[in-house]
Structure formats: C-alpha cells, structure tokens
C-alpha cells in the first residue's frame, strides 16, 4: 500500500514538473516576444510624463535593433498613421541566450524636453500606443497595445 502511494506521489510530482517545464519552453522563442506591463496613469495633463513599461524575451538574446512605437488617436486624425516611429534600442543590452528583461518608454507631454508627446490642438485626446521590436537577425516581435489614455488639452 505504501509502495503504491509513493509511486502515485512520484508520478504526480513528475507530471507537475513536466507541465512547468512545458510552460517555460514556450517563453523563449527566436522571434522576440513582448508583454505590456504598465502605464503610469490614465489621464495626463500638460507637463506630465507618460511612462510605459514593456517586458521582452528572446531565445538568442539579440534584441539590439529597433523599437517601433505607433500612436493611435481616437480624436486627432493627424496622429493616426500606418507606420510607427523607430527608436534604436540600447547598445548596453548584454547578448545572452534566453534574454528576459523590461524596458521603459517615456514621453514628456507638451513640454520642451525630448522626447515630446504632442497633444491635439484645442481638445482632449484619447489614444493608445502599439509597440513592437526587431532584433539583429531581422525577426519582428508580436505587437503589444497599451490601454487607452487621455491627454488633456489644458
């Protein structure tokens, strides 16, 4: 009886260990993977800093190429485009297999300190942002989307 109970416990432990290993196996892929982590608010007045935190993983760890950011506005057609703005990623990232890190994308809303996030002229704006990256081997990640934020005109 003890022997059967011990075998059952071992089988259950092996099953759980296998399930955890299978979940981790898909975490790192050749194409970079992004996850949207947070934004530091929902409503921003002029002079505020808007900060997005994005998580990234990559099997080869060669994420050093380009970050693309696209703003999609609900109220200002001048901020709706099919392409994003490209930013070089930090050369300080250490290339290592199974790279897992977070990075921050920050804008200064309607102030003269770069990078500047410009608001609508004469009205509040509701918008969201899309983010994707390209690694050194030209692999493009999935696209992650921020929640909708409001940029106040005043």
From TrEMBL:
It comes from Panacibacter microcysteis. Keywords: Signal. This is DUF4625 domain-containing protein. Residues 1-21 form the signal peptide. It comes from the Bacteria.
